[in-house]
Design goal:
This protein has 442 residues and is of the alpha/beta class. It has three domains: 113 residues, Gyrase A, domain 2 (2-Layer Sandwich), CATH 3.30.1360.120; 142 residues, Four Helix Bundle (Hemerythrin (Met), subunit A), CATH 1.20.120; 151 residues, P-loop containing nucleotide triphosphate hydrolases (Rossmann fold). The chain is 45% helix and 17% strand. The longest helix is centred in the middle third of the chain and has 30 residues. The protein binds the ligand Nc1nc2c(c(=O)[nH]1)N(C=O)[C@@H](CNc1ccc(C(=O)N[C@@H](CCC(=O)O)C(=O)O)cc1)CN2, guanosine-5'-triphosphate and magnesium ion (MG).
Length: 442
């Protein structure tokens, strides 16, 4: 621990009222702070019920004090926790009392940043702390916990270790003169390379799932007026989010709603129906539809099952960026007499719920979610970029087997990309970027 680090404090619990609220202090000189507020330093790692006093000796609150001497604390520094009643004003008084004793207000993420700098956790774990707090579904929370527990880091560290082995092997090759080349075991090298390739591919696949759990996917509902887009949004959300009426052109603004399917967070965007219209406001709504669709990961093209896919529908589909995947969904299937039409697509009824489970599964499939029973760890875009970079260098290495120097260099770059995930050699600006997005007190 750098002894120069100053002492920081913050309210660690959520803003507003709660049963209990916590002020957390980390750094040095906690003895005199505890002496001033509590009259004594609490016994290490024991819950101590005590008065919290202000500078005049008046009791601010009666609560529990916890003292964690370094390095056995969350931050790795001395930590003092004052657990009081969870009112905004009383916690404010307690925090002000600490600040009056020469303690500085913590910046966003500063406790966790210190935990990282003091080697209590690595960078991927530190990020997962924020992801755990921000998780909107239980599935996302569980996978964030797996990352915090170190599952993701273990996969990365395993790869880094194997790359080190491979590099040692190749460096040894470099030392042998041409004629002694048979001394070098190229089959060992090739097996190791193959193993790393497989493991990296697996880690990347899992990280993609984890990133989906963190970010969710954006899904745009589009189609002609009155086909039932807003009805489908309401059905998927399980509540009446959007106005539904038999008047075509009901939805004007884009309506956004967060939902989840089997723990995968989804951002649904219900849009204005698309048609030729002389109504100025409706036309503005349609312009928004087009803007919105451009940002979607998946387009749900809604059609009327009784009418099938018309010329007008085809024109709508043709109007969207080709790179965005789309699903054709025939709604109002409850009104169909007899057999469903032969058109390819999914038949549903937003009204009766028919086919909705099938649609849910199709949506998950389209956005690339594979049911991984409990194995996913949460990941960020930053991690995916690093893993992809590692992959590229590894592929380049494979092309350079006959040039040991170049091969070794590509392996080094592979390893460097992977190490950036756990933050072995991370730049200050990256750390600033990561921790500034935390909440104060974390
Ligand atoms: N009251 C309270 N609850 C909390 C936290 C906290 O800071 N305070 N946490 C904050 O986010 C989380 C728990 N994180 C913690 C992580 C490490 C240690 C700790 O004392 N570590 C020591 C001892 C480990 C051991 O006994 O096995 C160490 O690492 O050496 C404490 C809390 C969630 N709940
Ligand atoms: N029978 C039947 N009627 C439906 C179904 N889905 C929607 N409707 C009806 O179709 C009409 C239009 O529904 P909306 O959900 O408002 O359609 P929309 O696509 O959002 O329409 P705009 O916002 O105008 O573009 C309403 O009267 C709904 O009750 C369905 O599955 N079956
Ligand atoms: Mg609508």
């Amino acid at each position: 621990m750098p002894p120069s680090a100053d002492t920081i404090a913050a309210i660690a619990t959520a803003q507003g009222r709660g049963g209990v609220g916590v002020v957390r202090i980390s750094g040095s000189g906690l003895g005199s702070i505890a002496e001033a507020i509590l009259g004594r330093l609490p016994v290490a790692r024991h819950a101590t019920y005590t008065d919290f006093k202000d500078e005049t000796g008046e009791v601010i609150d009666q609560g529990i004090a916890l003292y964690f001497p370094a390095p056995h604390s969350y931050t790795g520094e001395d930590v003092l926790e004052l657990q009081g009643h969870g009112g905004a004003a009383v916690l404010h008084l307690l925090l002000q009392r600490c600040l009056g004793l020469g303690v500085r207000l913590a910046e966003a993420g500063e406790f966790t940043r210190r935990a990282f700098l003091n080697d209590k956790i690595d960078l991927a774990q530190a990020e997962s702390v924020a992801d755990l707090i921000e998780a909107t579904t239980t599935e996302a929370a569980r996978s964030a916990m797996r990352s915090l527990h170190g599952d993701f880091s273990a996969a990365i560290n395993g790869l880094v270790e194997e790359l080190t082995l491979l590099r040692m092997l190749v460096e040894a090759m470099l030392d042998f003169p041409e004629e002694d080349i048979e001394v070098v075991d190229t089959s060992h090298r090739d097996r190791l390379l193959e193993k790393i390739k497989t493991k990296l591919a697996q880690t990347l696949a899992t990280a993609k799932q984890g990133s989906l759990l963190r970010e969710g996917a954006h899904i745009a509902l589009v189609g002609r007026p009155n086909v039932g887009k807003s009805s489908l949004l309401n059905r998927l959300a399980g509540e009446e989010v959007a106005l539904v009426s038999d008047v075509p052109g009901t939805t004007r603004d884009v309506i956004r709603q967060a939902i989840q399917i089997r723990g995968v967070p989804l951002h649904i965007m219900d849009t204005a129906g698309l048609r030729e219209s002389g109504d100025e406001v409706e036309n503005m709504g349609m312009a928004r539809t087009h803007q919105t669709v451009g940002r979607a990961d998946l387009i749900l093209m809604l059609l009327d099952a009784a009418q099938g896919c018309s010329e007008g529908d085809l024109a709508i589909i043709a109007g969207f960026p080709v790179e965005i995947p789309r699903l054709q969904v025939y709604n109002k299937a409850d009104l169909l007499q007899g057999a469903l039409s032969n058109d390819a697509g999914i038949y549903i009824s937003a009204k009766s719920g028919l086919g909705i489970d099938t649609l849910r599964e199709q949506i998950l499939k389209q956005i690339g979610w594979h049911n991984q029973e409990g194995g996913t760890f949460i990941a960020r875009e930053r991690h995916l970029i690093a893993l992809n970079q590692a992959n590229i260098h590894l592929q380049q290495a494979e092309q350079l087997l006959d040039h040991p120097e170049l091969f070794a260099e590509e392996l080094r770059l592979t390893q460097q990309a992977l190490s950036s995930i756990t933050g072995k050699f991370s730049a200050d600006d990256l750390l600033g970027e990561i921790f500034s997005r935390f909440c104060i007190g974390k």
